[in-house]
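Exercise 7. Given the encoded structure of a 232-residue chain, write a plausible sequence.
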């Protein structure tokens, strides 16, 4: 029997062969997720796979657009000492060879001394800064919204920006440090509102709208631009 990680199958979506990683769980509905490795579909334990073609057909436009967006944002060349990275929505140059990594006014100082070491050094810096900065934004908005969460953790999800559990644990993706502050705050507000409504019901979006009136624009911006933050 194939393990869950090895259960990959080919499906035709809008005339294109798409590799799908299949997972089974106790959930009641079919879940689709797209990350750097492709399309991941989670289905209920007894779900008949003969019905999956219809679901993929209905979601075809979304699947193809997301796969194309990720493919387009793959770096055409490795990060180098003269590359630029967005930091809170503003371009910062990379500078190598520093004893301690830091965020400066116009550059990110990295400990890496060769181009091949840049991604690891950059991630280490971004994680360090995200741990404190995202915690501050979360605490700020929780106070404004008069909401309480039980814990904050950094996330490394492939394409997901944040999550909130039924126990009040909020996870935020460290790659959000590249996004403009307003977009970052929208994600924070979104997850905090899940403390009240752990769904995407009209009431949930009313809560988000009260705190972030232009949430639709922020969501669309993230949908069309966010994938480039996963390109290194």
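Solution.
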């Amino acid at each position: 029997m194939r393990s869950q990680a090895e259960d990959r199958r080919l499906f035709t979506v809008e005339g294109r062969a798409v590799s799908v990683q299949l997972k089974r769980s106790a959930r009641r509905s079919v879940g689709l997720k797209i990350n750097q490795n492709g399309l991941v579909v989670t289905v209920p334990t007894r779900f008949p796979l003969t019905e999956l073609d219809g679901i993929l057909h209905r979601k075809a436009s979304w699947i193809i657009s997301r796969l194309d967006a990720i493919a387009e944002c793959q770096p055409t060349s490795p990060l180098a000492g003269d590359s630029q990275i967005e930091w809170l929505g503003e371009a910062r140059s990379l500078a190598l060879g520093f004893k301690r990594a830091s965020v400066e006014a116009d550059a990110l100082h990295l400990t890496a001394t060769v181009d091949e070491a840049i991604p690891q050094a950059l991630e280490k810096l971004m994680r360090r800064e995200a741990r404190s900065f995202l915690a501050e934004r979360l605490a700020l908005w929780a106070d404004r919204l008069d909401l309480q969460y039980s814990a904050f953790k950094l996330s490394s999800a492939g394409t997901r920006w944040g999550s909130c559990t039924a126990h009040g644990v909020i996870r935020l993706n460290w790659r959000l440090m590249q996004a403009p502050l307003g977009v970052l705050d929208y994600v924070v507000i979104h997850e905090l509102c899940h403390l009240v409504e752990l769904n995407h019901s009209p009431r949930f979006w009313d809560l988000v709208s009260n705190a972030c009136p232009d949430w639709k624009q922020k969501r669309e911006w993230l949908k069309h631009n966010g994938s480039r933050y996963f390109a290194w």
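Remark. The longest strand covers residues 16-25. Students should compare their own answers with the one above.
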